[in-house]
Amino acid sequence: MTSSQTEICDIQIQLEPALSVAGFVDILTRSTLAERRPVNNETVMAGMLKNADLIVTARTSEMLLVGVARSITDFHYCTYLSDLAVDVAYQGRGIGKQLIDFTHAAAGRDTTLILLAAPAATTYYPHIGMTQHNSCWLKKDVS
After folding, report:
1. CB 57 within 8 A of CB 67
2. CA-to-CA distance for 116 and 7, rounded, in angstroms?
3. DSSP state, 117?
């Protein structure tokens, strides 16, 4: 096992910058995050992967993809964890927390890790030691 890998039970957490679009869409679907992502637009999904600074995956010993964390970071000040997805069949095993911890270590512990919670996950993040920030602002162009 290298410094860019860690293992929990039979799940291996690792950097996987060449994750395929099909694999990414599949895990988003199996996690329910696909409900809030443009998974039917392959161009957008490919761009999301290509332009991410960190892609961390969780795989079983059989190489089944069961989790992903996709982030944008400057490696010095901030890390935006844009997608955190764990297959619903594997949730509750600490995989999400391990993906977050691995991401933060890879980006640099001095960075501030930032994420927007999916509506159904708002109670999860305090449970793993994250604090809520009340002044996030969004701007989306309406097309």
Report:
1. yes
2. 26
3. P
Distance from C-alpha of 23 to C-alpha of 29, rounded to nearest angstrom: 10
- Which whole number is the average pLDDT over 107-111? 96
First to last CA, the chain: 47
Whether 80 and 114 have beta carbons less than 8 Å apart is answered as yes
Instruction: State the CATH architecture for 5-127.
Output: 3-Layer(aba) Sandwich (3.40)
Q: Which pLDDT band holds residue 143 (cuts at 50, 70, 90)?
A: low
Residues constituting the chain: 143
Q: Are strands 54-60 and 11-15 parallel, antiparallel or unpaired?
A: antiparallel
DSSP codes, 4-35: TEEEETTEEEEE-TT--HHHHHHHHHHHTGGG
